[in-house]
Amino acid sequence: MSFSIAELFTQHFDSKFDLHEQYLNNQMVRVLRTIGYDRNYKRALGQYLYDQDNNEYLDLLSGFGVFAIGRNHPTVISALQETLTLELPNLVQMDVSLLSGLLAKEILATCPDNLDKMFFCNSGTEAVEAAIKFARYTTKRSRIIHCEHSFHGLTLGSLSLMGEEIFREGFGPLLPNCSAVPFNDLDALEKALSNKDVAAFIVEPIQGKGVNVPDDNYLPEVERLCKKYGTLFVADEIQTGIGRTGKFWAIDHWNVKPDMILMAKALSGGFVPVGGVAMTTKIMDTVFNRMDRAVVHGSTFSKNNMAMAAGLATLEVMRAENLVENSAKVGEDIINTINASATQYEFLKEARGRGLMIAVEFHAPKSLGLKAAWAMLEAANKGLFCQMVTIPLFKEHRILSQVAGHGMNVVKFLPPLNLTQKDRDWIINSVDKTISDTHQVTGSIWTLGKNLASHALKNKK
Q: Is the dihedral of CA 179, 182, 183, 187 positive or negative?
């Protein structure tokens, strides 16, 4: 009898939640069931998910940015199938691989001209870990500065640069000599750098938690201050890079030249994990400065043929389908259209972002009845109002989205970059209807709100 994944999938299709409850993270299953996200998806294509009844869902999470070119793209599938059948030598550890050289060349062609070396790894958090080590070795300094509310990964080194306490709690002690400054605060950054003991300032050009966009002068001044004090400027583009913000790299909005760019997520094409660090020759040649240091940092599965093929195919799709340009155009349209309705809705503060990295923020209303309803939710759990947006978007409009971070009233959209006019209209109409419903305090959406508040209060006890 031959082994068949298709047969396994069919045979156990209805048991995935039971399997996870028994063998994996049962709390994740509880979350999904509590908020009504417990669907059985049968297939996925592009920006769409399909359940067992063939209902179509618009995926505005894209695997936290992994599926920038959409799910199951035929170009990437073809490249991976071809790679599997060629019987190529793979991971010959006392060798160098052709595909990794080709992918490095392609990526560096998109980077600022001061970056001309690549290091490959398996994930975003591994890219951050590499940047910490490379910065310390290159500068002979130990301090690393990051921003409050940042997200750089969940392994021990990257967790030490985590700006959200809920992820850090109970996992210490973390790396020493890592500290945070407020995002978009140049005075605080200069004060932190002024002792000339900081190896690197690692920053997301646009923060993922909350989709916080900096002032126009922030990143240019970051570059200047880092040069002034001998600190390496490291741009974490793991989420913002590869077309997400309507430029290939988010730093391109401000024409800055960091010493390192960190990347992952979208580069995989959604199939084979791959991460990387683009850097200056000086950094590469300092870290790997002798033949006996050729292997001082690496990763067993980095540069594997499947990951490199996925990366090459992904870059080809980005070019062929003009996805960077589409991200800029569709994203700007969505943001502007939502903002145009802000005067209609008391709860709506603003939409913001760049390209298809979009936040919709809500705030306390002015009218008495709405203010009391808002206060009830905030007392139960700060940021709970956003669940009254994301849950109806999913249940009633079949749009998958998320709250942008703990304790914030921000809904985040991070869709594939191939959204169409149909998708744009789907989003706009669904968001408008859902926000409108939140203003009907006697409506069903506030029954949901009260249930959410009750559940949150029970969890606190």
A: negative
